[in-house]
Amino acid sequence: MRPYRVIGFILLCCLLLVGACLLFPTSGINLGFTTITMPTMAHLLGNEPEQADTVDISFLTDNLLAETLFQDTLSSDTLPTDTLPAKVSVNIPQQATPTIHHEEETAWETPPPIDTLLTDEYKYLTQFFLSLSCADSTSVRIVHWGDSQIEEDRMTRELRRGLQGKYGGGGVGIIPLHQTIPTQSVRQHLYLSGVKQNISGGPKRYLVYGPSSMHRAFDVYGVMGQVAQLDNDLVAGSEDVELQIEPGYRQGTESYFNRIRIFRNYEDSTILLPDSTTRYTLHLRGKWDIYGISLETHKGIIVDNIPMRGCSGYVFTQMNADELRHYFSTTNTRLIILQFGGNVMPYTTSRRQVELYRQSMTAQIAYLKRCAPQASFLFIGPGDMLTSINGELQTYPMLPLMDATLRVMCAEQQIAYWSLFHAMGGKGSMTQWQEKDFARSDGIHFSQKGAAHAGKLLTEWMLQGIQEFQDKIQQQSLVLPTNNEEDNVVF
Amino acid sequence: MSSFEYIFAFNNQSPLLFTQTYFWVFFAVVYAIYALVLEVRSKNTASSSGHLRLHLRNIYLMLVSWFFYYKTSGIFLLILLFITLSDWSFAWLIHRAHRQGKLHLKNLWLTLSVLIDLGILCYFKYAYFGLDVFNTLFGTHLTITEKILLPVGISFYIFQVISYTTDVYRGKVAPVKSPLDFGFFVSFFPQLVAGPIVRAEEFIPQLYKPFFLGRRQFGIAIFWILNGLTKKIVLSDYLAVNFIDRVFDNPLLFSGFENMFAVFTYSLQVYADFSGYTDIAIGLALLMGFYLPKNFDSPYKSRTPQEFWRRWHMSLSRWLKGYVYIPLGGNRTLFGKPVSKLLASNINSFATMLIGGLWHGASWNFVIWGGLNGIGMIFAKCWHALKVKVLGRLPEKMQQLMPRLYRTIISFDNGLCVLMTFTFVTFTRLFFRSGSNLDPETANRVAWETAQNMLSQIFGAWNSQIILPFLVEYKTIVLLFLFGMLIHWLPAKFKHWYRLQFALMPLWLMALVVTIVIVVLYQFVTADMQPFIYFQF
Fold it and tell me: CA A341 from chain center: how many Å?
């Protein structure tokens, strides 16, 4: 066969393909189970205009502009006013701004406009920064809730180490009784009647997130959103449950803990340990609901890592308010970090859906604020995430808008916002993170290295805010409250 | 990036691959000019015309191949050029020493040539691994300050040039006269970056043969290209992106069942990826009138690990046999001393597998992978020997007395052996994939951790409750896996039949089929990514 005939064959194939591109409807042909598409000629020639769905928000310079964007594009009467299930009735008294016990005695002779000391970025964390001054005598807790991006204690660990390095404190914070999703910071082995439990064994568990089959008939889940139910019937012939705990790392602040707190129904238990423990075995007996076990120190910073796999952050209103309030108050929780939004991105294709998410999260935050009036709040939006668009991996079209929207929501709710999306480098930055081995091939999750990097960025941002706060205090010659007695911070 | 840069400059974010539209436009242009080159006529005799055409063709394809390599690896083209010049020169020095009867000089040139080739390979591929081993052994904390990048395809073309100088040394081939012709042999672009590893004696004679492409060969070439693209895009890339990579990225986040399914799916993916690439290479070369050796022969039909290695990456297996196993002593000697056939064969094949493992990647995982394969081969040989000894003449007698029962037992035995070999090979792949696609600086640690985590999940966190929901939610992945394995296990005769039917189609119909296949492949390329579905909470 002569080469020119081969050329002819190639040309014939090209012609047929061009014909297919021209004849195919732009929206493709729907076959029911799938839609067959072909690239347009403009796409083939590289002249295709930017996709209609891609939202350019580069013009947004502040939150108000973003807000304006919504006012322009959305009609409020088309949106539901509340997307939350009306399951939980909350009756929490509206409490005034949290105070610190010794404030009247030592701190503020003329109360300064403390919330105005800091820049917009940090001003809603002022109360948390203020509480840090008590960390040398009591424990100050941070609760970090998030989706799979914080699984394995990845980002949280960096924040914990950074703050514990500066203010003291140790332990990994709260952990579930049965660790079905492993974390790197702590190793747990659970034995029922002497038999080691694997991932699918162990006590009956209920989750507030995840499949509905794992939900509970009522709303008591504890702060982790999960309950392990110790049941006499389950532990046949014995009521003994043995939990072996040891830190995952020999070094690092979280490897030191001298107090164990068991959060359960009816009452909590605290076990004081004589000294740092490398391995601890806990024996539990009875019929209990275990909400979590906290490995901590009696002073300094304690940071809980609470990943909720696959969760978008809608679940808090399904968690009993009294339980949450009890936890926040008894653990002196002063900062609540919510890191959500990634799980809604694959299903968010319109501005309206972004707005719905904003409304839902607004309600969630309002609920949590009522449960933890003493705490500051920080929302961390989704990082850059890639999806396949015409065979090319690109940032989810609605992600920049989602990021801007969540920033607006946080400003409205008077809580701090940290844009992971911008910290990563903005639109398309996930590709660079993948090249640096900072992100996994799915274009969504960080690698260990990347999560550590993201955690360090967050920690740096937080420490910078603390520094800014301390500088302002110094500049204005203000005296911070000091507490010498344990647990003298009240709400 | 300007159009000029896009077309001609190297972009490390987007190296040239067979699955890119750019490549096919590039190939169409290359082929159009190739057709013109083949039409060149000399003013003198017909034979000088043919000679000129061959010469021009080889130079043209060499330049095109260099451009291809530049688009794939950028400045590393210089290494390819250096290797080409170095081995061409050494081959001539070996040849001259041979003619002069100076054996010691001949040995010296060969040793020097191989040392230079392996030195370059070791520097780029094994520097981090070597340093890691050194640090572990001596408790040092040495680091490499300047990042060393691995040039694409270096393992393939280094082995190719080693085979050339060794074949010249052995007198199997005469040295290539023109460095340009030799440059073409080393850099021929279809097989440059992922094989098959072409031995000098197989390819160099083709440099001097005129272009010929039969009608049936043309059809077969198009078939291989389509077959390769389908394997690469549908069975490899889709499965990898939507499932396998996620699990191997962090096995602890998935249950034991998901981990195990990922390892089995990876077995199909790695086969589809590698064999798909070489299918395309074989098809492209055939269109240009060159024959590349077959590289895969339905390896998962193998009944034993030995047979698997005769069917899997055949060009590498042949290379290892010819240039490692035989020089080590084959089944005759061990460390130069004659020993029993069984001992020599087993030890030498085990050593060869270790080296083969290390060739695939620079971490202990690859050594373990090679070692496991070596052990598997030895075990299978011993098992066979034991079976023969225990059963004695029983099978023959049974065949005579109860032929139907005998055939049933043999079929069952064959099926069981195939499944066992596939499972064994798949299990070893756990170490292979764990060590793949890693930053060389941390490859050893990460590879070992991943393998450990996978094993702990598979053997400790099975969670059978999720099997059903998993099969439902990941039905596309599961069906693709089953489809791939089914096609793989189709009888060779049937495959040969439909390949021939395709090759003999009228050209217009073939073009139509090509178009339809490309439309289907486009659907997989542009398919939405499978969203994350969690089963373990």
Answer: 9
